[in-house]
Design goal:
By secondary structure, the protein is of the alpha/beta class. The chain has seven helices and nine strands. It has helices spanning about 10-20, 30-45, 50-65, 70-75, 80-95, 205-210, 270-275, and strands at about 115-120, 120, 130-140, 150-155, 175-180, 185-190, 220-225, 235-240, 260. The strands form two sheets. A six-stranded mixed β-sheet has the order 1-5-4-7-8-9, with no helix packed on it. About 25% of the residues are buried.
Length: about 280
């Protein structure tokens, strides 16, 4: 049995009352957005003949997502974060702001207040297992001029794919640091190679992805915020090349230019020296 009531005057009048469109006070923008959002969902219920059981299962899923603070995880999984980046890219293109390292999504696991250092930092605590990774780079403006004192915030997972603050086995701020670039705009971090992240098995986000025949895996990646006075803030990531999920990221964050081949170096003493000098990139 299929009934369609959306286009009836009763439902249309009802929508106007729900969204307060004719009420004084409140926010015009909120009224219009709710009118559209609720209206689109009413129409969807009509068009797909959503049953009452399906509707209440949906409400229960939203409650589960909220109670486990997983909207921030479902959001990139459903492509909203990347869609907002695509809009941001288009806004920049229209304003002729081009060049530089591409942006990509922040994700839900940034934590403010990481320890700060100048030029060089060790990111991992003594208990952190994993293979040593040296991360080094140079912050330049779009013309290629190095920026001294730029703020480089870096955060990444451990070798099991867990992030400090979300993984209780790690100490506070493990694998999260802020580095200010040296006089050449360079920074160097000593850390460990991260593993990819996977959405927790059985979590509400996993339930949604499984219902779509999708997985919740991300390739190994390292997050960056780069900022300097007078410059646009950059949110980005790099991916370590060779991961099976590099171009199959559940969060759609991979961009070709951000896939970096790691270089294996055996002579540690030489690297320590080069790293501390900040003389390679
Ligand atoms: C992550 O580590 C992440 O970067 C994103 C976007 C989503 C989930 C976990
Ligand atoms: Fe991440």
């Amino acid at each position: 049995m299929s009934v369609k009531i959306f286009d009836t005057p009763d439902v249309q009048d009802f929508l106007v009352r729900i969204s307060g469109l004719e009420n004084p006070g409140g926010s015009e923008r909120a009224k219009q957005i709710i009118h559209r959002l609720v209206g689109d969902l009413f129409r969807l219920i009509d068009d797909f003949d959503i049953t009452e059981d399906e509707y209440w299962a949906g409400i229960n899923l939203l409650n589960a997502l909220g109670s486990q603070t997983q909207f921030g995880l479902l959001s990139p999984g459903l492509g909203f974060d990347h869609f907002l980046d695509m809009r941001h890219d288009a806004i920049d293109a229209e304003a002729h702001r081009t060049g530089g390292t591409p942006r990509t999504i922040e994700g839900p696991l940034y934590v403010a207040g990481a320890p700060e250092a100048d030029g060089f930092v060790r990111m991992s605590d003594e208990a952190t297992e994993g293979e040593t990774m040296w991360l080094t780079g140079q912050v330049r403006d779009v013309d290629g001029t190095p920026i001294k004192g730029a703020k480089v915030e870096i955060w990444h997972a451990n070798d099991k794919g867990g992030y400090s603050f979300f993984d209780p086995s790690q100490s506070e701020y493990n694998l999260r640091r802020t580095i200010y670039t040296d006089s050449d705009g360079r920074y160097t971090a000593h850390s460990i190679i991260p593993s990819g992240y996977g959405v927790p098995e059985g979590a509400p986000t996993d339930v949604v992805l499984k219902s779509l025949g999708r997985h919740g895996e991300r390739p190994a990646h390292i997050h960056f915020f780069i900022s300097a006075p007078g410059h646009q803030h950059l949110t980005t990531q790099i991916n370590l090349a060779g991961d099976p999920y590099t171009f199959d990221d559940f969060a759609f964050a991979t961009r070709e230019e951000l896939v970096i081949p790691a270089e294996r170096i055996e002579d540690v003493s030489e690297i320590d020296q080069r790293g501390l000098d900040g003389a390679f990139s």
